[in-house]
Specification:
By secondary structure, the chain is of the alpha/beta class. It has 9 helices and 7 strands; from the N terminus they run ααβαβαβαβαββαααβ. It has helices at about 1-20, 30-35, 50-60, 90-105, 120-125, 140-150, 185, 200, 210-225; strands at about 40-45, 65, 110, 130-135, 155-160, 165-170, 235-239.
C-alpha cells in the first residue's frame, strides 16, 4: 500500500503545483506535459538569466541548464535579488542551481560553469538542449550563441537591457514558410569595442532585468508548449 500512497501524494503535489497555469485556456495538462519533457539551456545567470530560470523552473520545465562562469559582486545585488550579500564572491551558477532545486525539486538542474568557446564542446553543450535562452551581458557571447544556434538549427530566445529599456525576441524558429529570423538580421555586425556601453558604464534600473527576463521566459515557454512559431519575428520591447 505504501508505494501506491507515496505515488498518489507525489501526483497530488504536482497537480497542485501547476494547477493555476493549467486552468489557462489553451494550456492544460498536455501543455504541462510538454514543458516537463523539455530541455532548456540558459546562458548567463545574472540580471536576465535569473528571472528566466526562476520562471521556467516554476512553470515545470523538465531540465534546465545554468551556464555562467562569473561570481557575485556587490553591484549585482540591486537587480540579481536571488543572491545575498554574504554570497559576494561565490559562483553564480552554483548558487542559482541550489536556489532552483529548492524552488522546484521536480526540475533537473545542470550546471555549466565554464566560458563558451567556438569549439566542439560548445556544439555538444548546445545540442544537449532543444531551446537556448541567451541572457549574457556581452556581444561576443551573443554573436557566438546566435551563430551556433543558426548552424545547429536550435531556437534561441534573446534579450537585452540598456538603462531603462529592453527587448526580448525569439529567433531561429521557422515560420509556416520555413523562414527563421537571425540575430544578424537585426544587428548584422559585432559592434566595435567601446561603441555600445555596458551596464557598468551606462547603468540599469534594478527592476528592468526582471521585466525583460520574464518576457524572455514567456517567449521560451510558449514556443515549447505550442510547438510552432506564429510570427516570422516577434520583437517585444519595454520602455
Amino acid at each position: 500500500m505504501w508505494p501506491f500512497y507515496h505515488r498518489f501524494q507525489e501526483d497530488k503535489m504536482e497537480d497542485n503545483r501547476y494547477s493555476r497555469q493549467q486552468l489557462v485556456p489553451g494550456f492544460g495538462p498536455e501543455a504541462q506535459k510538454k514543458l516537463s519533457q523539455s530541455r532548456v539551456l540558459v546562458v548567463g545567470a545574472g540580471g536576465l538569466g535569473l528571472p528566466v530560470l526562476l520562471a521556467l523552473a516554476g512553470a515545470g520545465v523538465g531540465t534546465l541548464g545554468v551556464c555562467d562562469f562569473d561570481t557575485v559582486s556587490l553591484s549585482n545585488l540591486h537587480r540579481q535579488t536571488v543572491f545575498k550579500t554574504a554570497e559576494v564572491g561565490q559562483p553564480k551558477a552554483e548558487l542559482a542551481a541550489a536556489y532552483l532545486r529548492a524552488l522546484n525539486p521536480e526540475v533537473r538542474i545542470q550546471v555549466h560553469a565554464s566560458g563558451l568557446k567556438p569549439d566542439e564542446h560548445l556544439r555538444d553543450l548546445l545540442t544537449d538542449y532543444e531551446l537556448i535562452v541567451d541572457g549574457s551581458d556581452n556581444f561576443e557571447t551573443r554573436y557566438l550563441v546566435n551563430d551556433s544556434c543558426a548552424l545547429l538549427g536550435l531556437p534561441l530566445v534573446f534579450g537585452a537591457i540598456f538603462r531603462d529599456s529592453g527587448h526580448a525576441v525569439l529567433l531561429h524558429h521557422p515560420d509556416a514558410q520555413g523562414y527563421a529570423a537571425n540575430y544578424r538580421d537585426l544587428f548584422p555586425n559585432l559592434p566595435a569595442p567601446g561603441e555600445v556601453p555596458n551596464c557598468a558604464e551606462a547603468g540599469v534600473l534594478g527592476v528592468l532585468p526582471g521585466i525583460i527576463g520574464n518576457m524572455m521566459a514567456a517567449e521560451a515557454s510558449r514556443s515549447l508548449w505550442e510547438g510552432h512559431c506564429i510570427y516570422t519575428i516577434r520583437f517585444v520591447c519595454f520602455r
